[in-house]
Every structure is written in structure tokens, then in C-alpha cells.
Amino acid sequence: MIKFAHIAPTKYLQKFTWLNGAHLILAHLVESDQEYCNHYYHMGKANAYKIMDNSAFEMFKQGKPMYDSAKLIDMAHRCKAHCIVMSDYPRESWIKTMKSAVDTMDKIKEAGFDTFYVPQSELGDLKGYMSSLNWALNEQSIDVIGLSILGCPIALGIDEQMKASERNEAYKLQRFMSRWQIFNEMERRGYLKNPRALERFHCLGMVDGPNEVELLRPYHQFIKSWDSSSAIWHGLHGIRFDQSPTGLINGKFEKEVDFSYNKEDADTSAALDNVNYIERMIR
pLDDT digit string (tens) for 208-231? Predict the structure, then answer.
């Protein structure tokens, strides 16, 4: 069964994350929010699988440089994580991300952590992206492969640097289908026949609705874990998942997650309903 990591603002971690089968810990918050860091440290290693993320999504969106993997090792110790997401570089040559992994994965292993590799590529370089994926599948030192809501669309030619005001319905549909298309491409090329493909992948983030989980049902056996802030962030704004094709009839709430959010009268029941909606799909 897929281990789901529901992401929440710091003040709501205690209320919701005990439900998680996995945890995605964001590097930029470990660095800036001591309460956030302490929550995961005191949780210990006996709880659900904890992934130290490199915050590539946030850094890319803000145009900031990626965290160095060596720095992530220190952060992982501070949170008692199990696994580290190695540095990756959206919209850059797939070789750059691969070489970075080669340079750092032994250090991560020696420090006692699992390795998590996220393929990336230049815009529209599906061939390069698939080469990166195939390399990771056959690399014994890589434990988890991340399929990113940046990496998958970018490889398929979808411009993830497009301004929100320019994102039309066609863009949203293309983005919603992109990870499904990458799994289709892996199946077509025979990658999923590799015994090491079983429970090897982590889906980083969620696009335009929770029913992406249902869309990928034929590939659930290959998905180890998944993370998203969607259930809790939408719920805190009174938005419940629904029975529309994507699960969000009015589309994704585009406001970026505010991890300092703490509203006295926030509708936590809607957030819990959304968490249960996803849990039903993965079960």
C-alpha cells in the first residue's frame, strides 16, 4: 500500500501528521523554523518513514540555488530522517542531476540514510529524462526514485515557469496527465519489468486534484510513497474534495502553502475529510 505524506503548516503538524504513512520534511523549513524541525526530531525514527526533502520545488519557483547534498545530511540528522532527497536541477541537463547524485550518494549512504533520486531534464527532453530514469532503476545505490510535478511535465514540454495568469485549462490538463504519461512511457519501454521497479517510486506533490491517485491506480504496485499538501491546505480554506473528474471541480487552489498559517476558526473537519478521501483511494 502507498505510504502517504500529508504536508501541513507547522501549527497543524501535531493535529494531522500522525495519520501519515510517510513524512516529507522540507529543507527550507528545517533551516528557518525551529518548531517545525523539533516536531520531526521528537517524533523519532520509530514512526513512519521520514524523507528529508531538498526543497527543489520551492527553490525552483523562487529562482534560488538548490541545497547542497552535504548540507542536507546535517538537516537529516537534526530531524532523525530515514532518507535524503539528493540535489536535482529542473530544466537543466539530465546529466547534471545524475552526476550530482554520483558525487554524493556514497556520502549519504555512509551517513546512514537511504538515497532518493529525482530525474530532471531540459524542457521537452523526454529522451534524456527517460535515460535518467533507466540509470536510476539500475543503480544499486539508489533506494527511491522521485517522480516530480516539475520533472514530469518539463520532460514532456510543459513550461512550469509559466505565470499563473497564463495557465489555461489546456495547461492544467497537460500537467494533470504528465506523471501518468511518464509511467506509460516506462511501461512501453519495458522499464517496469525490472524487478527493482516494484515499490521504488515516490510521487512528489500532486497537480490539479486528488484523483491523480486514482489515475495512477494501474501503477500503484510501483509506488512506494506519495506526498502532497493538497488535502490539508484545501481543507483549511474550506474546500472539500468532490466527485468531479479531478476531485476539485473548481481546480487547484493556486495560493502557495503558507507554513506559518494559523487561523483560529480554520475548518479542520474539511481537511480531515480530504485526508480520508485520499486514504480510501490508496487502500
Answer: 899 999 999 999 999 999 999 999
